[in-house]
Amino acid sequence: MFLDEIELDLEGGKGGDGCVSFRREKYVPRGGPDGGDGGHGGSVILKADASQTSLIHLAQRKTWKADRGRHGMGSQRVGASADDCLLLVPPGTIVYDAAHDFVLRDLAHEGDTIIAAQGGAGGKGNLRFKSATNRAPRMATPGEPGEMRRVRLELKMIADVGLIGKPNAGKSTLLSCVTKAHPEIASYPFTTKYPNLGLVAGYGDRTFVMADIPGLIEGAHRGVGLGHDFLRHIQRAGILVHLVEPLPDDGTQPWDNYRTIRRELELFDPLLGERPELVVMTKADIPEAAQVRAQFAEQLAKTPFLICSLSGEGLPELLYAIQAELAPPLTW
Question: Which of 149-169 are b and which e, b meaning 16 or more Cβ less than 10 Å from the residue's Cβ?
Fold first, then answer.
């Protein structure tokens, strides 16, 4: 299963209490205070880890709490601090404070971390309160409570290339043919229910990540179809590869479909309209493909690529063009 948005309640561990204790040893009269401090409570930490591709593993429970610190003890023994509660999330996860709706941190890169809920400090033992005027303090402080926070995690997949287009345009087929990804492929619309990632290697001197974004339709920016849930993933893509079906099964016109997708992107985020785009005519084995490609060349003032994923026709040219468009390496 795939999950790209979730709310969690996080709570840091309570600090251990300080200890009230007095030194008692044979032949040592008036030994004085020797109560130790309590240990610190654990914190809840979020860390970006490339081994994670979804937030589904965090959905098993809604509340994540770190352990509390140990209490202080006599003989000046300090209580042990608790271990932190480490939650791994995919790179590209944005952490929001759900109560006040602001961004705490964008965990865009591998290894990025944030202390989402700080553990409480340990209390002070009575040894801390010894002074010239108070030789036998009988007081200690309790450990501080851990921080409590509700967070919203929103995943925006990071990919160098985002494949976009109407349902059945051939995005999943292309991804499966140039990477080791295995997206579901079928002849009916909305086969893909969630974004799929694949690594493309062997074309030029750089590997790159390609993402298959589920099919968009008119009204996607308002929540129509599946596109609204996944439009945000396109925002992380370095360039867009727009696949167009030359002879749609639903009888629509290829140019109208192209313009519909472009309009939906711009309505969702105007900056997407400025993103570098390569237009690709799929299913080159269909006789109408070459004619539709020529019509697009007139409209766009540039010739779209023509490919057939199953036979491999046009794929090297497309992938080398993507490689050239991506250089130099992307920075976020």
Answer: bbbbbbbbbbbbbbbbbbbbb
Residue 325: its H or E element: helix 315-326
Q: At what angle do helices 288-300 and 254-268 cross, to 10 degrees?
A: 50
Both tokens of 115, joined, read 């202390």
User: Distance (Å, rounded) from C-alpha 141 to C-alpha 42?
Assistant: 18
- pLDDT at residue 160, as a whole number: 86
With 60 as the cut, is the pLDDT of residue 329 above it? no
Q: Report d(CA 92, CA 98) in Å as an integer.
A: 18
- Let me know: does 144 contact 117? Beta carbons within 8 Å: no
Output the average pLDDT for the chain: 86
Higher model confidence: residue 73 or residue 225?
73
Q: Shortest CA distance to 70 belongs to which of 56, 84, 80? A: 80
